[in-house]
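We treat protein structure as text, and this decision shapes the records that our systems exchange. The remainder of this section carries one protein's record, kept here as part of the documentation:
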Amino acid sequence: MDFATDPRRHFDELFESSDDPWRFKERWYESRKRALTLACLPRARYASAYEPGCANGELSAGLAERCDRLLISDGAAAAVGLARRRVEGLPQVRAVQAWVPDQWPEERFDLIVISELAYYLSAAAVAELGAKARASLAPNGDIVACHWRHPVEGWRVDGDTVHAELAQAIDLPRVWSLVDPDFRLEVWSADERPVGAREGLT
């Protein structure tokens, strides 16, 4: 099924045919990107976090080590099943099936991670995604986004463009940014202090 024809069915079939369609488990590129995503988090620990578009749960497993409670979701039922197996034994993690932004949870989070997700959405849906993330963010919470920067056939925009759209919708200060040749990784927060200042360093 072609992505442009039926996006939801496309992802269902993708995960039904492979437990790792983007080779998250194999590629050093993916391992490095996950490590940098975890390293960019301004806090050592979070009370409640949300990762929409969790795919097979590889990033989720790393986030779980930093969170008291972690909600993960994906629209594809097969992806949710894979993610549940990946985080099995981690009682702080809850996995649900949900297509965002339509099925955004009615909860508050002090960390939201939007990774390799937003460029699949229309401009209106990206704006809604950013607005809902902002509205569900706890005071001084952090929103992290990471996206591939190169154009891909069938995608509306690349990572640079989608981050500009997200930034406008989130409407919070950008406190950290990494522009890798392959991906863009950014953090937005109402708490503009650097990590050292957050810990009382001068």
